[in-house]
């Protein structure tokens, strides 16, 4: 892992990731928005690509890698679960934002911004309105791991084990994200 792969805290409730991925932009957009492709790196489920549209993310972490791993006890409730949200911005193929779980008005929000960079695509992911440091460490570790899988899938590589990578990077975010 390189230092540039790590997300950065940009506000007390916000973490930002910047990745350069294999293009073209339409292909990366498809991996963000099409359930079958999204299920290969994050979570499947329907997504209505319009402002106010429903988002349903069905996580099945065991399906993200050909490597079989034991789920750590503290994550057993997250091995298969569903998160709901609503699209807040949708400008194909450059910008997608939606709420992430939580109660109405209390949900966090994730945004994906894509821009062509030659034959690559810059993806800037920002997750806002995280309620506390514990959530930020967890979300940062999760996004870091999922974005690594996305890069592998787009690059034609088999991703490593989800849980082993998550445990490693979450430990690093525990050190990087200041308490208080």
Structure characterization notes:
Helix 3 (133-154) crosses helix 4. The protein has helices at 25-33, 35-38, 133-154, 162-176, and strands spanning 8-11, 14-22, 54-60, 80-91, 95-100, 108-117, 120-128. The model has no long low-confidence stretch (mean pLDDT 94). The longest helix has 22 residues, at 133-154. It has a single domain (3-176), classed as 2-Layer Sandwich (Alpha-D-Glucose-1,6-Bisphosphate, Chain A, domain 4), CATH 3.30.530.20. It has 180 residues and is of the alpha+beta class. A 7-stranded antiparallel beta sheet has the order 1-2-7-6-5-4-3, with helices on one face.
What is this structure's SSE topology?
Blueprint: E1 8-11, E2 14-22, H1 25-33, H2 35-38, E3 54-60, E4 80-91, E5 95-100, E6 108-117, E7 120-128, H3 133-154, H4 162-176
Antiparallel strand pairs: 1-2, 2-7, 3-4, 4-5, 5-6, 6-7
Helix pairs in contact: 3-4
Cα-to-Cα separation, first versus last residue:
26 Å
Q: SS-based structural class?
A: alpha+beta
Q: Total number of helical segments?
A: 4
Helix content: 25-40%
Q: What is the count of distinct domains?
A: 1
For the largest beta-sheet, the strand count, sense and barrel status come to:
7 strands, antiparallel
Rg value: 15 Å
Question: How many distinct beta strands?
Answer: 7
- What is the average of the pLDDT values? 94
Strand order in the sheet with the most strands: 1-2-7-6-5-4-3
- SSE string, helix = H, strand = E? EEHHEEEEEHH
As for the CATH topology, it is Alpha-D-Glucose-1,6-Bisphosphate, Chain A, domain 4
Report the CATH superfamily.
START domain
* Strand coverage percent: 25-35%
Gross geometry = globular
CATH architectural arrangement: 2-Layer Sandwich
What are the segments in which pLDDT stays under 50 over at least 5 consecutive residues?
none
| CATH class bucket | Alpha Beta
């Amino acid at each position: 892992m390189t230092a540039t792969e790590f997300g950065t805290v940009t506000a007390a409730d916000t973490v930002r990731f910047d990745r350069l991925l294999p293009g073209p932009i339409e292909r990366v957009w498809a991996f963000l928005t099409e359930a079958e492709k999204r299920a290969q790196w994050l979570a499947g489920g329907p997504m209505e690509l319009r402002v106010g549209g429903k988002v349903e993310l069905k996580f099945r972490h065991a399906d993200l890698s050909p490597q079989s791993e034991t789920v750590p006890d503290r994550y057993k409730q997250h091995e298969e679960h569903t998160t709901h949200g609503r699209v807040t911005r949708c400008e194909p193929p450059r910008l997608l934002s939606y709420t992430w779980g939580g109660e109405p008005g209390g949900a966090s929000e994730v945004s994906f911004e894509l821009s062509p960079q030659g034959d690559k695509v810059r993806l800037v992911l920002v997750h806002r309105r995280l309620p506390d440091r514990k959530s930020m460490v967890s979300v940062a570790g999760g996004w870091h791991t999922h974005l690594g899988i996305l890069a592998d899938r787009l690059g034609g590589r088999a991703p490593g084990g989800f849980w082993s990578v998550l445990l490693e990077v979450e430990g690093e975010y525990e050190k990087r994200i200041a308490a208080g």
